[in-house]
Design a protein that fits this description.
The chain has 118 residues and is an all-alpha fold. It has 4 helices and no strands.
């Protein structure tokens, strides 16, 4: 299970970097950085979730569920923090590229669900 989650996060990072590099070569650094921050707002909280959810204290279902809830809480807090930092510190931000890359990185979850046959 852990390798699947890390594979999804790797896919999110790959999509983010691909979009950012395309924009860097095709338009400007500002466009590329806006896209990168959009993707980062998706994969950094996902990575924080993975690290926190992996800290299971015990082996029964209740402990595993508690760790998952804690991971979701950390992911939610990290998402809020990332958006706050980007919107207050990154200037100028190209919002359409930021949100498009954020959505593209989030769509990696659904792509992984549709293509996972294990």
């Amino acid at each position: 299970m852990r390798s699947r989650i890390l594979r999804i996060i790797g896919l999110q990072v790959g999509v983010t970097l691909a979009i950012s590099l395309l924009l860097w070569t095709g338009t400007s650094a500002n466009h590329a950085l806006s896209a990168f921050w959009g993707g980062a707002c998706a994969f950094v909280p996902a990575l924080a979730y993975q690290f926190r959810a992996a800290l299971v204290r015990g082996k029964d279902a209740r402990d595993i569920l508690r760790a998952q809830y804690a991971g979701e809480g950390v992911k939610f807090a990290m998402s809020i923090l990332m958006f706050y930092v980007v919107f207050t510190r990154v200037h100028p931000l190209v919002a359409p590229l930021f949100f498009a890359t954020y959505v593209a990185a989030l769509l990696c979850y659904f792509v992984a669900l549709l293509t996972d046959h294990d």
